[in-house]
Every structure is written in structure tokens, then in C-alpha cells.
Amino acid sequence: MTKLTARFAVPFALVVFLSGCALATRPSIAELKGNPGRFQDKTVSVEGVVTSAWNVPFVPVKLYKLDDGTGEMTVLAQGGNVPTKGARVKVKGRVEDVATLGGSNIGLHIRQTDVDYRR
């Protein structure tokens, strides 16, 4: 291998590796629900349409449901406002559940750390 080839091979391999890592954090909602243990306590990004939202004044917990075309999942928003029904958003957050009983996850949700409104 020549010096020129070696010089470009390492950065190229690094870019390919990091691209693969980025793809791993963009699962579908069907993947999250189908294998929740794989994503438990990991940060993921999901993009979809808000199908319903709950925002009760003076209550710090705000929820909305997000549908990405493969399924629907609850998102727990902390602080700020929740997106309105029909809004297209990209959500970043940690996958969590309330409890696990008999191997089934109860209350599987994404705890939002960031939200981006899409057009």
C-alpha cells in the first residue's frame, strides 16, 4: 500500500464506521417495540407525526404519541410545550419503561431530550 492510499484509507474507514454508528441510533418505532431491551436506556432519534398530545397546566409531565409509519410510541416531554396533533417532528431521547413484568415491558416510552419541528 502506498503512502497516499494509506493516508486516505484510515479517514475513509473512520467515516464509514461513524456513519454506521449514526444509523444504529435511528431505529423505527416497530424496532423499539419489537426489541426494547436492545434500546433500553439508550439515546435514539425517531421522526414521525404527532397523533395525540396531553398538556395539563401546572403538571410537569407532558405526553404525546408519535407515529413513524411502523407504529406509535409515547414520548414524555419535559418542560416547554408539546407539539400539536398533526405536527411532524424529529425527537431525540432515551428509551425507558415503567416496569418489566413477565418479560414484557410496560409503559415503554421515549424521554425527550430534544425535539425538532419538520415541514
Walk me through this protein's architecture.
The protein is α+β, with helices and mostly antiparallel strands. The chain has one domain (28-118): OB fold (Dihydrolipoamide Acetyltransferase, E2P) (Beta Barrel), CATH 2.40.50. Helices cover 27% and strands 44% of the residues. It contains three helices and seven strands, in the order αααβββββββ. The protein has helices at residues 3-24, 29-34, 36-39, and strands at 43-55, 61-67, 72-78, 88-96, 99-101, 104-106, 109-118. It has a five-stranded mixed beta barrel. Strands 5-6 form a two-stranded antiparallel sheet. Mean pLDDT is 83; it is low at 20-24.
| SS-derived structural category | alpha+beta
Mean of all residue-level pLDDT scores: 83
- Tally of domains: 1
Described by strand count, sense and barrel closure, the largest sheet is: 5 strands, mixed, barrel
Give the structure's gist in a few sentences:
With 119 residues, the chain is an alpha+beta fold. The chain has one domain: Nucleic acid-binding proteins (OB fold (Dihydrolipoamide Acetyltransferase, E2P), Beta Barrel).
